[in-house]
Description:
Blueprint (H helix, E strand, L loop, with lengths): L5 H7 L11 E13 L3 E2 L3 E9 L2 E6 L7 E6 L2 E13 L2 E8 L4
Antiparallel strand pairs: 1-2, 1-3, 1-5, 3-4, 4-7, 5-6, 6-7
Amino acid sequence: MQKRSLSRQRETLPVPEKRRSPRVEIDSPATVKVINSSTGSAPSIGARVLGASLRGLQLQIGFILPKTAVQIQVFNRFVSGEVQYCAAADHGYRVGILLHEEL
């Protein structure tokens, strides 16, 4: 009887999805504007949308973006949300946005 490694069994198990709705991979231009209540809003900066779900967007930008309120123009409309994470990635940073309203 062959013994199987428990760690090997764990590697093959699927990780359950935690999203409420599925993410669709896309590649679309967007603009991001940081909303700051004390100084008004900053200028719009170019970004790319890499993924979208009903309540979130994943963006690629060229700078670090802290957890803050943002307004994004994408798909010919404006949406607002909060930065949830910003992580270094190839060609800049990946930023997760939790939207205030569904797309």
